[in-house]
From TrEMBL:
It comes from Actinomadura sediminis. InterPro entries: PhoX, TAT_signal, WD40/YVTN_repeat-like_dom_sf. The keyword Signal applies. Residues 1-22 form the signal peptide. This is Alkaline phosphatase PhoX. It comes from the Bacteria. Pfam families: PhoX. Keywords: Signal.
Amino acid sequence: MSVTRRGVMKGGAAGAMSIAMAGSLDAIFQTSAVADTGAGEAYGYGPLVPDPKGVLDLPRGFSYKELSVEGDTISDGVRVPGRHDAMGTFPTGKNNELLVVRNHEQTRSGVKAIAPDELVYDPEAFGGTTTMLLKNGDELKSQYVSLAGTSTNCAGGVTPWGTWLTCEETEGFSGESKSHGWVFEVDPYGRRTKPEPLKEMGRFAHEAVCVDPHTLTAYLTEDASRPFGMFYRFRPRAHRGDYHAYMQGGRLEVGYVRDVPDLSLIDEPGTKLHVRWKAIPDKYAKQTPIRQQFGHEITRTQKLEGCWWGHGKAWFTASFAYKSDGAARDHKGQVWTYDPKTNEFELQLIFKADSKFDGPDNIVVSPYGGGVIIAEDGDGAQHLVGTTKDNRPFTFARNAANGSEFCGVTFSPDGRTLYANRQSGPGVTFAITGPWNKIRG
C-alpha cells in the first residue's frame, strides 16, 4: 500500500484521510537544513559556535551550565543514578526556585537509584527518578532520589495537577521481584509519592505520556517490536485533576486509522488521518502483550517515542522506520500531532534519506516561535533540533563530547531556561539560557 497526496485526491483512501497544507510543501518539507557546526543557518538562532571545552556547541549568545552528573554524591552512600532521560519542571512559588524531576533509564546495571524503602517498588530494579531543586534556573540547591526500584524509566510527562508520570519502557526482565511495564506518579514536592503502579494505564513498553488539561485524557506512546507499538489514550473516571485522579481507573484505548496499518506509509507533511479508537481486551497484559492482542486492523509504527501537550494537541514522534525491520516504508523520523477536537493525526514533519537530521526522540513544544525542540537519538553527531512555526527545522545544539543521545528536553515554567540531558558518557543535565525571543523564521 502506498499513501500519497495524489493518491488520496484520486480517492484511493479518501475515507481514511484528507489533505490540508499549511503553506507550500517547499516551505514545510525542509529536511535538509544545514546542521554542521559553524555553517550558515537560514532559520532558528544562527550557526553553532564550537565550545572550547568540547562539551556543547550552541548558537552565539547562548550558554550552558552542567547541573547534575551521573555518579555525583547526593548523600552518604547515594549517588546520582545513570542514563539520564526525560524530565519535567515544576514551580515552587517562592525564592525564584523550581523543581526538576528526571528519569533514569536503567534496568539492572549502572549507578543504582537508592531511596528509602517507602519509595522503592522492586529492589531488583536499578531505575527511578531524581528530583532537583534549582534557584534562578541554573543553581543546584539540592537533589535526591524520588522514586526507586522501577525499570527502564525512559520518558514520561507532566500532569495539569503538577505531578510527573514516569514510564517504564519494558515488559519485565529476568530476576524481577514485581511486574514491570507500568506508569508511576511522582510528586515533585515530595509529599505523596508512592511506589505503586498506575495499572489502569496499561502494561506495555511505555515511552512517553502527555495530558489534555481540559479533559484529563492522557495520550501514550509505545516503543516496541514484533509487532510494532501503538498510540494509546487513557480516559480517567475522575473529573477533577489531582494526585489521585489516575488511581481511580478509567478506559484505555488504542488509536487506529482505517486502511493505514503503518504510519510510516505517510510521507507528506500536512496529511491528516481520521482516528478511530478501540477498547483493549486485557490492559494488564496478564498473558498476552497488549500489542499482540490486535491484528492487522490496528495502526502501528516503528519507534514511537516522545510525547508532549501543546497548542491544544498531543505532539509525538517516531524515530525511524526501516523496511528491513518490517516497516512499510523507510524514513529517518516523523513528527505527528493528534487533535482531539477533530480526532485527527497530522504529519507535521518527516526526515527522509537525504536529511541532515534523524532519530527524533523526546520533544517539547517551545514557548517561542510556535515550534518544538527535538532531542536526536540517531546516527553520527547528536543534536537538539528546533522547528519554526512553519515546521522549518534548524540545529540548536550539538553534543561535542561524544556520540550519546540527547533527551529530557523541557523548558522552565517561565520559559527562560531549556533543560536537556546527555544520556551517557557520563549522563549530564544541562541548563541552557540565551536570547530565546530572537528566533528567525
